[in-house]
TrEMBL record:
Keyword Glycosyltransferase: yes
The UniProt record lists the keyword Transport: no
Known pathway: Cell wall biogenesis; cell wall polysaccharide biosynthesis
Domain Glycosyltransferase 2-like residues, every copy: 8-169
Entry similarity comment: Belongs to the glycosyltransferase 2 family.
Domain of life: Bacteria
Name of this chain's protein: Mycofactocin biosynthesis glycosyltransferase MftF
PANTHER family: GALACTOFURANOSYLTRANSFERASE GLFT2, RHAMNOSYLTRANSFERASE WBBL
Molecular-function annotations in GO: glycosyltransferase activity
Length: 317
């Protein structure tokens, strides 16, 4: 059976980036079977006049990346797989052919080699790993591309800025958690997919990423969203015995935020998580009880302190 693949592009005031993104989608050596743009209430007319080959789903307001991704996946009802592509991403012509080829049996998602749009030699993300202190590490981020990330392999999760997902697998675990709004929603999805027994592959197909295409429009800085959503993911999934690493990292982030002049945004992010913590804690038992793979096997015992452990690179600490 031929794999049918839709491209889903969440968009929010992306007039600067969207034309280039769509041009790259149309130029794929292995064509997409559908292109869906999910517009989060843009006011810059970026979702207008995109062409007859693009289906536009209008949400009317900014409901966040997670909602936009889910609505796009819902819209791709006749497709087997969905490529989530940020509006500020330009895919290499062979991107879909390579990632679709890596979506084999038991694989729920394929991470790709994300590099800087204006400097393709600078890595942005080559697949994610989650640590037991709650921090998500982006492999290779900020480093020069020296060939170390050219080999396919397995990773914990894919960055949803440019990743291919098996539609049935995503729907089977409930899709993206819309309560997270933006940032780390792909980490949370990756965790649930892995607990359900799915694997995630890395295929070094290149996706050039401008980065922060709409982040400056959000109500709080990226660091605040990362602080908020890290706490929520930990509350929903982590065992109590990992409290030590989590508390260590939270304290370290507070100190770093204070030193970096970002304490108010950091505390605002943590405070915004409080209302959701009871619901997350209630879901722990069901999530763990339904797991096919134990969380200890999914979240490796990687270093979480010392020279090899830092904060989340997106947060800057």
């Amino acid at each position: 059976m031929t794999l049918r693949v839709a491209a889903v592009v969440p968009n929010w005031n992306g007039a600067r980036w969207l034309p280039g993104c769509l041009a790259a989608l149309r130029a794929q050596e292995r064509p997409f079977d559908a292109i869906v743009v999910v517009d989060n209430g843009s006011v810059d007319e970026s979702a207008d006049g995109l062409g007859a080959d693009v289906r536009v789903v209008r949400l009317g307001e900014n409901r966040g990346f997670a909602v936009a991704a889910n609505r796009g996946i819902d819209a791709a009802v006749d497709c087997d797989a969905v490529a989530l592509v940020n509006s500020d991403v330009v895919l290499a012509p062979d991107w879909l052919a390579r990632t679709a080829g890596a979506l084999g049996d038991g694989v729920a998602a394929v991470a790709s080699k994300m590099v800087a749009l204006d400097d393709p030699g600078l890595l942005d993300d080559t697949g994610d790993f989650l640590r037991r202190d709650g921090v998500c590490e982006q492999r290779g981020r900020g480093r020069r591309d020296d060939g170390r990330w050219d080999a396919p392999g397995e990773v914990f999760a894919a960055c949803a800025g440019a990743a291919l997902y098996r539609r049935a697998a995503v729907l089977g675990v409930g899709g993206f958690d819309e309560r997270l709004f933006s940032y780390l929603e792909d980490v949370d999805l990756g965790l649930r997919l892995r607990l359900a027994g799915w694997r995630v592959r890395y295929e070094p197909a290149v996706a050039r990423h401008a980065g922060g295409g709409s982040a400056h429009q959000l109500e709080r800085p990226v660091g605040g969203w990362v602080a908020r959503n890290t706490l929520l993911i930990v509350a929903k999934a982590f065992p109590a015995r990992w409290a030590g690493p989590v508390l260590y990292r939270q304290a370290a982030w507070l100190v770093a935020a204070a030193r970096g002049g970002a304490l108010r945004a950091h505390l605002s992010g943590l405070a915004s998580a409080l209302a959701l913590l009871p619901a997350m804690l209630r879901e722990r038992q069901a999530l763990r009880a339904g797991a096919v793979v134990p969380i200890e096997a999914v979240v490796d015992d990687r270093p979480w302190r010392g020279p090899r452990a830092g904060g989340h690179p997106r947060a800057g600490f």
